[in-house]
Amino acid sequence: MLLGCTFRPFGAVVMSVRNNCPWHRSNWRPVYFPFFVKHKLKHNTPEALMKSRNGRCLLMRRILREKPFLGWNHQCTPREERVHYPL
């Protein structure tokens, strides 16, 4: 067992996984497989996203290049439409 561990190429496996990971490499491009493309073409079109409130918020974030202040702590509902609970 000890002999098998010494000959196992841990370095090559770790480096190949790390270099293919989108968080660790700088030239990352998204890869679209055919079954994902069919779903994206059906459900992620701008017309389909404009039908719901969350889709409109998502589309707004995509158009504005997903700035951090839009993705976090962003109140997309107006003040008068929010639920007010009595103290």
- What is Rg? 22 Å
Helix content: 40-55%
Estimated share of beta-strand residues: under 5%
Largest sheet: none
- Poorly predicted spans: 11-15
- Report the average pLDDT across residues: 65
Q: What is the terminal separation in angstroms?
A: 66 Å
Write down the overall geometry.
elongated
Task: Please write the string of helix (H) and strand (E) elements.
Answer: HHHHHH
What is shown here, in short?
The protein has 6 helices and no strands. It is an all-alpha fold.
Can you characterise this structure?
This protein has 87 residues and is mainly α. The protein has a domain of 31 residues. It is built from six helices and no strands. About 6% of the residues have low confidence.
SSE topology:
Elements (H helix, E strand, L loop, with lengths): L1 H6 L2 H11 L13 H10 L2 H4 L3 H11 L4 H4 L16
From the structure above, extract its key features.
53% helix; single chain
